[in-house]
């Protein structure tokens, strides 16, 4: 029997049933010093902090809210192999050799994540299996061609192209005309992953200070001064992460990354009924511009994400936004109460590839993962840590990704982006 729906519109399923306790965090006072200061205790910042601390560096992580309080704790937890754009697109934009290097980076990121989950005993409900569902027939045909290309050019085995008739073997989702099953993808509890990475970084010697908002980063002699809500922090190197949350701090990031708010809901445990939605505990996402994504959890809930807004505010009634989208995909859930509903801020770029740059002497930024941060983010942190230590090949690869500025400048940028996004969403509906 399902639980009654709760009235708390911002109840995050991941917070309600934490799998890992967050580590004890450090107190911070005015005049604190650190060799390296990481802004943001999400997966990217913690990937950097863990790597740096394991190498013996003096690392301080400052987080405006709590560990995983940003994008890392409110996303769908899906693991998509590869970069955010498919390999054919990358080959056309950056050439075949560079596209191959980007694929190899993504594969290294996937293996690094799996290895650290095992090495540090991070309990995060890691489950294999990812469905991509085509909402148009031409897209379904493109998936077939893409799977053949990935097998022949990149040696990817196990991809299964699905016709419309094949879909019921995997899912009861309605409105799709084909798809692709990738056994190398999967899903996890993103907040549990983030807390696990934080615990590993703290065990390696990193200090983590929560509820510490950075208001300004300024050059101070040969280093940096960070003006925070708890006083000033001095550091030789600054690593600024925060998927959609650092644009106000760094104008160059704001020019390339726009924050959006995503929305998710969860049912109560569905028992045997869960298998009518997803036959196995897989994750799925579709090919719409305003994407629908969902997964079957280890306790047989359905977690469904869909819809987005192009501001910073989370609306009061998330259920009312997401439930109609969910019922178009799973109409049989009309009688099922939603026990959780939550949302949070993510970051997107014009090309949907992350904005990874060195903005000044010893100032690194990583933002705008556009829904691919669970897997790519932590290893991007590793690449930044390597660059700080003198090895920059992986960082330079990601820093070469083509990320144009959004048009319009500071005054008109948001209005132009919102108009474009709304138009693209209308195309989905039509």
UniProtKB/TrEMBL annotation:
The keyword Transferase does not apply. One of its GO terms (cellular component) is cytoplasm. Coiled coil: none annotated. Residues 35-386 form the FAD dependent oxidoreductase domain. GO terms for molecular function: oxidoreductase activity. Keywords: Oxidoreductase. This is Gamma-glutamylputrescine oxidase. It comes from Chelatococcus asaccharovorans. The lineage of its organism: Bacteria, Pseudomonadati, Pseudomonadota, Alphaproteobacteria, Hyphomicrobiales.
């Amino acid at each position: 029997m399902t639980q009654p729906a709760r009235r708390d519109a911002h109840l995050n399923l991941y917070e309600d049933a934490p799998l890992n306790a967050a580590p004890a965090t450090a107190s911070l006072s005015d005049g604190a010093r650190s060799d390296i200061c990481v802004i943001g205790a999400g997966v990217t910042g913690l990937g950097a902090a863990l790597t740096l601390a394991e190498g013996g560096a003096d690392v301080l992580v400052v987080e405006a809210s709590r560990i995983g309080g940003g994008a890392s704790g409110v996303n769908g937890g899906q693991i998509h192999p590869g970069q955010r754009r498919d390999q054919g697109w990358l080959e056309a934009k950056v050439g075949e050799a560079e596209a191959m290097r980007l694929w190899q980076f993504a594969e290294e990121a996937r293996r690094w994540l799996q290895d650290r989950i095992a090495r540090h005993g991070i309990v995060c409900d890691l489950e294999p299996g990812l469905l991509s569902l085509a909402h148009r027939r031409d897209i379904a045909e493109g998936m077939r061609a893409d799977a053949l290309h990935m097998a022949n050019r990149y040696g990817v085995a196990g991809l299964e192209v699905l016709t419309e008739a094949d879909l019921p073997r995997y899912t009861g989702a309605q409105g799709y005309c084909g798809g692709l099953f990738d056994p190398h993808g999967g899903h996890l509890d993103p907040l549990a992953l983030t807390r696990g990475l934080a615990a590993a970084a703290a065990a390696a010697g990193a200090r983590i200070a929560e509820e510490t908002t950075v208001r300004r980063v300024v050059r101070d002699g040969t280093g940096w001064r960070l003006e925070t809500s708890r006083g000033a922090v001095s550091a030789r190197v600054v690593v600024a992460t925060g998927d959609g949350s650092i644009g106000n701090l760094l104008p160059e990031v704001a020019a390339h990354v726009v924050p959006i708010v995503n929305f998710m809901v969860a049912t109560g445990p569905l028992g045997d009924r869960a298998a009518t939605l997803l036959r196995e505990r897989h994750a799925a996402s579709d090919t719409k511009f305003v994407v629908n994504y969902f997964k079957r959890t280890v306790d047989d809930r359905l977690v469904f994400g869909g819809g987005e807004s192009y501001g910073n505010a989370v609306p009061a009634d998330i259920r009312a936004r997401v439930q109609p989208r969910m019922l178009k995909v799973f109409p049989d859930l009309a009688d099922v109460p939603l026990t959780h509903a939550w949302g949070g801020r993510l970051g997107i770029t014009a090309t949907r590839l992350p904005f990874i740059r060195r903005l000044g002497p010893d100032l690194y930024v990583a933002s705008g993962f556009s829904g691919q941060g669970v897997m790519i983010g932590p290893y991007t942190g590793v690449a930044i840590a390597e660059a700080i230590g003198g090895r920059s090949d992986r960082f330079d690869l990601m820093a070469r990704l083509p990320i144009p500025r959004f048009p319009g400048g500071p005054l008109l940028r948001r209005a132009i982006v919102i108009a474009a996004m709304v138009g693209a969403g209308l195309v989905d509906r039509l």
